[in-house]
Write a structure and sequence with these properties.
Blueprint (H helix, E strand, L loop, with lengths): L11 H14 L1 H11 L40 E5 L6 H13 L3 E6 L3 E4 L5 E4 L1 E2 L10 E4 L3 H8 L2 H12 L3 E5 L3 H6 L12 E4 L4 H13 L14
């Protein structure tokens, strides 16, 4: 992650100058970035002034995002609920209601826009599709239960993009029942140390698991998944 921006410059000289400048800030950081770029650590750039002025402020909580977190909760957060013919309708309807009550904006997203028939012949209207509303637009993801629906979603390549991107970006994922298969296909398994943003539940537990899912969304991102290179 450290070398992400530097690595987008196709010319070597500007990258070397930026690394040389970074040596003045932190030799340790410069060494790590250079290693990620496959480059040697250059000599430090000459300083603009030899004696830098002493900082007037050593620490300020007023400048900390942690000290000033702003509004908590999930109001206005965009949630994707994947659907297809044969999914378990009652559980995702329960979660949809819980999310709306918490102020979130929940969308049913299918392989196409339009009506789908859930188990028990219940109708679900998908207002967005996997193709026209990519994962990056959403703050969290619900994967439905229902073997037939999961088989349909598993055959659609967009589904894997959804799952992998949500996981890579540290967003909260709730997998109901049979949808564990989709996570397994994406190479995602429960973390040995625990991951508050990766939640598993059976369909019958939808109402009970809703508060944990909402709390995970409120945390915004789950940086414990970050790795270099990424695991998924």
């Amino acid at each position: 992650m450290k070398e992400f921006e530097y690595g987008h410059d196709n010319a070597v000289a500007p990258t070397q100058r930026m690394l040389a400048s970074l040596v003045n800030v932190s030799p340790v950081l410069a060494s790590g970035v250079a290693s990620g770029l496959g480059m040697p650590v250059p000599a430090a750039l000459p300083k603009a002034i030899e004696r830098a002025p002493l900082p007037e402020v050593q620490r300020s909580d007023a400048l900390s995002l942690m000290a000033l977190p702003g509004e908590c909760g999930i109001r206005t957060r965009q949630i994707a609920i994947l659907v297809a013919d044969g999914v378990h309708g009652a559980s995702i309807a329960t979660l949809h209601s819980a999310l709306l009550a918490a102020g979130a904006v929940a969308h049913f997203i299918g392989p196409r826009v339009g009506k789908f028939i859930a188990d028990g012949d219940a109708e679900i209207e998908a207002n967005k599709s996997l193709e026209n509303s990519p994962s990056v637009l959403f703050d969290a993801l619900v994967l439905p239960d229902g073997a037939n629906g999961i088989e349909t979603l598993a055959r659609d390549g967009h589904t894997m993009e959804y799952v992998k991107d949500q996981f890579r970006h540290g967003k909260t994922i709730l997998a109901l029942g049979a949808s564990r298969k989709l996570l397994a296909m994406a190479g995602i398994a429960p973390s040995p140390g625990g991951d508050a943003g990766l939640i598993f539940a059976e369909s019958a537990q939808a109402a009970d698991v809703a508060p944990a899912f909402i709390a995970g969304i409120a945390a915004h991102r789950h940086p414990s998944r970050d790795s270099d290179p990424p695991k998924i």
